[in-house]
UniProtKB/TrEMBL annotation, chain A:
Organism (species): Marinobacterium halophilum
Name recorded for this polypeptide: Multisubunit potassium/proton antiporter PhaD subunit
Pfam short name (any one): Proton_antipo_M
A GO biological-process term: ATP synthesis coupled electron transport
InterPro entries: CPA3_Na-H_Antiporter_D, NADH_UbQ_OxRdtase, ND/Mrp_TM
TrEMBL record, chain B:
PANTHER family: ANTIPORTER SUBUNIT MNHC2-RELATED (PTHR34583)
Cellular component per GO, a single term: plasma membrane
Organism: Marinobacterium halophilum
Subcellular location: Cell membrane
TM ranges: 70-91
Protein name: Multisubunit potassium/proton antiporter PhaC subunit
Residue span of region Disordered: 98-121
Length: 503, 121
């Protein structure tokens, strides 16, 4: 059993999702809910077990079909992937919990779609082969297309077409890049590629560089890096709340892929091509932070504000990639987990506030007061403090770690003001929004129903991370530090990833 | 052969990108289809172009790389599914929004129109 643990976070949601489409489960929403929550919990347990196993025994290599890498398809569970698989599983469970309060009735097949999306994301994190990364990208994308327009409506269709068309162009570019890289390197296994890049003849270096930078564009599109971020706000604001919360991890898939490709393949051991994306990532990271901050100030409602905060978090993570040292990567991973959970929680809270404010929804206008001001106020306050990076919550630790990772004066000069100013703008935007939402109210009586237990459970599951990641800050940072070491020192684990030696 | 092949891929990509930038959903879908054709041809060529090469060792003097062919097959299947999805989505958008513009609303009419209205008034 334990040797097959690596593939369980992919198989469980896949099988669960398919079973949900068949009778007797597909007939009743109660049975669907129960089964979906069970499968999501099982996935979560398998993700925890996988994390513990990979921590105890080192990198887990799972070779499908018994073809020795680099020739077959391999799954690789190292510290970085298992951490993100665990994060995805938590997010999937929270999204399903929230949807059980009624969002899943808006259309058919909500639960199977969420499970299939979780499967695609887990697969993208676990694969050790760059073509399979493409395949899992497509799996998670097609599930996300269906989830985005789930429930229907003009706004969703409109945002959906942009999202689908953009991602199809992105997929084409991904394949172009893969074709170039396979043509020059002759392999698609990520570990094997990292051994080939340094030995490229000069004539082919330019080609490999073009392929690598094309990959940066594709991942930048998924991650909402600056010139490619315009789709995000509208898409996330149009999606229903549990879907938007699940989408909070989607940008991080792009960030993860940049980590993988540009620190492992084009990393320190890549000879002339080492860190060739660095000169591009630096300005784009800072400009992404700027664009997200401006967007946050200009947002007319809490959902769009949260979507812009996602862009800010992407910018911060890009800074950690641009700094390109182990400490920065470790800080980035800590921040990645924190920002995903808190942004997802903020999407859910925005929906709760919107439900209780009647027609005004979550727009920043004077309106009737919310039904449960204390509950929602506390949740919003915790999420806002965490996302802005005010102690004692997790955002503070993440940002401080990242600031510490800037090593020389030039890096500090660029990274510090950008991150600190974006935090300040986040505080301004959130406090302006929060005061309007909770304190500027008309005298109308509220008739909204209070939040259901499902809602509160889902938000609590996500929000508890904010204090917990500080309380467990020691083990957590030790873990991300070890994960960053594994990522940066691939040559040391090559004997595990390629048991038969490079091709 | 390489030159003809490269020109074909280039031409398909060019047409695909051009059509993707149009304002109506149908040309955009066509553009995406052409792009995926270009991509499939391009992927195929990453295993080098070769005549009379079998993909099984020992059956002919020269042999071809089978992996790009497998990749192209995967890419065709995925591209087909995605195209089917976006066609349905485009039709849904036409029904929901009442027009087939990618933004869901027609751009404001050119300036000539309001002036003509004024004359009528």
């Amino acid at each position: 059993m334990s040797e097959h643990l690596t593939i369980l976070p992919i198989l469980l949601p896949l099988i669960g999702g398919l079973l949900l489409l068949l009778p007797p489960l597909c007939n009743s929403i109660e049975r669907q809910r129960l089964a979906a929550l069970t499968v999501a919990t099982l996935t979560l347990i398998s993700a925890v077990a996988l994390l513990l196993q990979s921590q105890a025994e080192g990198i887990q290599l799972y070779v499908l079909g018994g073809w020795q890498p680099p020739f077959g398809i391999a799954l690789v569970a190292d510290r970085l992937s298992t951490l993100l698989v665990l994060l995805t599983s938590v997010l999937g469970l929270a999204s399903l919990l929230y949807a059980c309060a009624g969002d899943d009735r808006a259309g058919a097949y909500f639960h199977p779609l969420v499970l299939l999306q979780v499967m695609g994301i887990n697969g993208a994190f676990l694969t050790g082969d760059i073509f399979n990364l493409f395949v899992f990208f497509e799996v998670l994308l097609i599930a996300s297309y269906a989830l985005l327009i789930h429930g229907g409506g003009k706004q969703k269709t409109q945002a959906g077409f942009h999202y689908v068309a953009l991602n199809l162009v992105g997929s084409s570019m991904f394949l172009f890049a893969l074709g170039i890289l396979y043509g020059t390197l002759g392999t698609l296994n990520i570990a094997d590629m990292s051994t080939k890049v340094a030995a490229l003849p000069e004539a082919e270096q330019a080609l490999a560089k073009a392929g690598g930078l094309l990959l940066l564009v594709v991942f930048g599109l998924k991650a909402a890096m600056l010139p490619l971020h315009f789709w995000l706000t509208r898409t996330y604001a149009a999606a229903s709340a549990p879907v938007a919360a699940l989408f909070a991890i989607m940008t991080k898939v792009g960030i993860y892929s940049i980590y993988r490709v540009h620190t492992v393949i084009f990393g320190a051991s890549a000879g002339d091509l080492a860190f060739m994306a660095q000169p591009w990532i630096w300005p784009l990271a800072l400009l992404t932070l700027l664009a997200g901050s401006i967007g946050a100030l200009a947002s007319p409602n809490l959902r769009e504000l949260t979507a812009n905060l996602v862009i800010v978090s992407v910018g911060t993570l890009l800074v950690s990639i641009a700094l390109q040292n182990e400490q920065a990567t470790a800080a980035g991973l800590y921040y990645l987990v924190h920002s995903t959970l808190v942004c997802a929680a903020l999407f859910l809270i925005a929906d709760l506030i919107g439900q209780q404010r009647g027609k005004a929804a979550d727009r920043f206008v004077v309106s009737r007061k919310v039904r449960q001001p204390i509950l929602l106020g506390v949740m919003f306050f915790v999420a806002a403090m965490a996302v802005a990076g005010i102690p004692p919550f997790s955002g503070f630790v993440g940002k401080v770690l990242l600031l510490q990772a800037a090593q020389n004066a030039t890096e500090m000069l660029w990274a510090w003001p950008a991150i600190l100013l974006s935090s300040l703008i986040t505080i301004i935007a959130l406090s302006r929004g929060g005061t309007t939402l909770f304190w500027r109210r008309s005298s109308d009586k509220t008739q909204a129903e209070p939040a259901s237990a499902w809602h509160i459970a889902a938000v609590a599951l996500l929000l508890v991370a904010a204090p917990l990641m500080v309380v467990l800050g020691g083990p957590m940072t030790a873990y991300t530090q070890a994960a960053a070491e594994q990522l940066h020192q691939v040559p040391e684990s090559l004997h595990l990833l390629l048991p038969g030696g490079p091709s | 052969m390489e030159a003809v092949y490269a020109v074909c891929v280039g031409l398909l990509t060019f047409s695909g990108v051009f059509l993707c930038l149009r304002g109506r959903t149908f040309p955009v879908v066509m553009g995406l289809t052409l792009l995926s054709y270009a991509v499939n041809l391009f992927l195929f060529s990453s295993g080098r172009l070769k005549f009379d090469g079998a993909t099984i060792l020992g059956t002919s003097f020269s042999y071809a790389d089978p992996l790009p062919q497998a990749l192209v097959l995967t890419a065709i299947v995925i591209g087909f599914a995605m195209t089917a999805f976006i066609v349905i989505l485009a039709m849904r958008a036409r029904a929901d929004l009442g027009n087939d513009h990618v933004d869901g609303r027609l751009p404001p009419a050119p300036e000539a129109k309001p002036r003509r209205k004024k004359e009528h008034a």
